[in-house]
Amino acid sequence: MKSNHFLVKYQYKNPVDTLYIRIIGNYDYQDSLELSDDLSVDFDSEKVPISIKLENASQVLEVDKKSLNHISVIRMEIISTPESIEFSGKLVLKIKHEDVEKTFQATADNTLDIPEIKNIFTTTGIY
Fold first, then answer.
1. Considering its fold, how many domains does the chain have in total?
2. Mean pLDDT by 10 residues, the chain (127 residues)
3. Which pTM does this prediction carry?
4. How far apart are alpha carbons 85 and 99 in whole angstroms?
5. Which structural domain, as residue segments, surrounds residue 86?
């Protein structure tokens, strides 16, 4: 299986409790796929995942909203097969001066015909 590695930046919007993670670079948005009620992925015209949106982030990750402004590590994988798209994510947040790891996963049908590939996303900072 082919593999891509992308560096990402993140932004947390407190009033709407939404975490946005996007790969660094210029890409043309084409389509979105909802993997769960709270998680969606945007794809470009080449069917490369370019951004991730996690709504109700503090509830999904079971953390205080303030801690989502202090993410030190993001590591996520999106693995697409002809049948499905599987997402797994790990965040490390600073909570009361300690690093706390939070994980989440989601799977959806591959309704966008995304080619079989493994995409890895890792942190570089905030935007």
1. 1
2. 87 96 92 96 94 96 93 94 96 92 96 93 70
3. 0.91
4. 29
5. 3-126
